[in-house]
From TrEMBL:
Residues 6-138, 155-294 form the EamA domain. Keywords: Membrane, Transmembrane, Transmembrane helix. The keyword rRNA processing does not apply. The chain crosses the membrane at residues 7-32, 38-55, 67-87, 99-116, 123-141, 153-173, 185-202, 214-236, 248-269, 275-294. Pfam families: EamA. The keyword Disulfide bond does not apply. This is Membrane protein. It comes from the Bacteria. NCBIfam families: LPXTG_anchor (TIGR01167). GO terms for cellular component: membrane.
Length: 304
C-alpha cells in the first residue's frame, strides 16, 4: 500500500468518525449534561494515550508537569472547542453544527496569511466569499423552518462558531508546537488538561442511572476522540496537509445523509432534521468555499 493510499484511508476514517460524532452527541445530550459528556470524552481519550505512553514512551509523560505556555493556551482553546461544539449540537441540529464548525478551516487559512505570511490567491478569496454566502443561506433556511424558539437556535449557532474560532487558534499554535514535540506527546497533554478543567462541572450522579445503551454511547464518544485524532496524525504523516484538509471538510455530508435516513425512517430517539433544496444548496456552497480556501496550488505543495 502506497503512502498516498495510507493517507487517504486514515483521513477517511477520521471523516467517518467526525461525520457521526454530531449525531451521537445529540443523542447523548438528551440524558447527559454537556460538561459531563465532554469530561468523559477527554478522560477516555487521555487514559488510552497515557497507557500507550507508559508502555511505549514513558519520557512523554514529562510533558504533563512541564508544558510550555503556548501548549497550555492551545489546550485551553481545544477545551472550549469541545464544549462549544457540544452546546451547538444540543441547541441546534447535527447538520447545522457540522456546517457552522467548518468556519474554523476558513479562519485557519486567514491566520496563515496574517501570522505565517502565507499568500492568499484570488481563488482562496473567492472561496472565502462563497463559504460566507453558503453558510448564510443554510442558516436562514434552517431558521425559517424552525417552529420553536429561534433565539435558542441562534445561540447554538454562535456557540458552534466560537468553537470553530478556538479550533483555528489551536490548530495555528499546533503548527509551532509540532516542531517542538512529537504529536503523541502533545496529544497526551491536550487530552489530559481538560480532564482536570471539566472535573468540577461533571455531574457523576447522572452517570449512575444510565442504561447499557447510553454507556456504550459514551464509550463510543470517548473512543471517537482517540481514534479520530490518532488517524488524523497518521494521515498527516503520509499525505499533504492541504489534501487532508479538503477531505476532512466533506464530513458534514456523512452527517446529512445519516440524518436524512433517520428522519425518513421517523426515528423517535433523535429529533428529525429536514433539509430544503435551498439549505442543501447553501451547505454545498459553504463546503465548496471552504475547500477552495484550504486548497493549495500544486506548485506550492511541491515547494513546501
Amino acid at each position: 500500500m502506497s503512502n498516498q493510499t495510507k493517507g487517504i484511508v486514515y483521513t477517511l476514517i477520521t471523516v467517518l468518525m467526525w461525520g457521526v460524532l454530531a449525531i451521537a452527541l445529540k443523542i447523548a445530550s438528551g440524558v447527559i449534561d454537556s460538561p459531563t459528556i465532554v469530561w468523559f470524552r477527554f478522560s477516555l481519550a487521555f487514559s488510552g494515550m497515557a497507557i500507550w505512553a507508559l508502555f511505549n514512551d514513558p519520557k512523554a509523560l514529562k510533558i504533563l508537569y512541564k508544558p510550555s505556555f503556548i501548549l497550555v493556551i492551545s489546550t485551553l482553546m481545544l477545551a472550549w472547542n469541545y464544549i462549544g461544539f457540544m452546546w451547538g449540537v444540543q441547541y441546534t441540529t447535527p447538520g447545522n453544527a457540522q456546517v457552522a464548525v467548518q468556519t474554523g478551516q476558513v479562519v485557519l487559512a486567514i491566520f496563515g496569511v496574517v501570522f505565517f505570511k502565507e499568500k492568499l490567491s484570488w481563488m482562496q478569496g473567492f472561496g472565502f466569499l462563497l463559504a460566507l454566502i453558503g453558510f448564510w443561506i443554510f442558516y436562514q433556511q434552517h431558521l425559517t423552518a424552525l417552529p420553536a424558539d429561534k433565539s435558542e437556535y441562534t445561540k447554538g449557532t454562535l456557540l458552534t462558531v466560537s468553537a470553530a474560532l478556538t479550533w483555528a487558534v489551536y490548530a495555528a499554535m499546533q503548527k509551532k508546537l509540532i516542531h517542538q514535540h512529537p504529536v503523541t506527546t502533545l496529544n497526551l497533554f491536550i487530552f489530559g488538561l481538560p480532564v482536570l478543567l471539566y472535573l468540577p462541572f461533571a455531574n457523576f450522579s447522572s452517570l449512575a442511572h444510565l442504561s447499557l445503551g447510553y454507556w456504550l454511547l459514551l464509550i463510543f464518544l470517548g473512543m471517537n476522540t482517540l481514534i479520530s485524532y490518532v488517524c488524523l496524525t497518521l494521515a498527516l504523516k503520509y499525505m499533504e496537509a492541504g489534501k487532508v484538509s479538503v477531505l476532512l471538510i466533506m464530513n458534514p455530508i456523512i452527517t446529512f445523509v445519516i440524518m436524512g435516513i433517520l428522519t425518513w425512517l421517523q426515528i423517535t430517539w433523535i429529533a428529525p432534521e429536514h433539509f430544503s433544496v435551498l439549505s442543501i444548496l447553501g451547505a454545498l456552497l459553504a463546503l465548496s468555499g471552504a475547500i477552495l480556501v484550504v486548497r493549495k496550488k500544486k506548485k506550492a505543495e511541491v515547494v513546501s
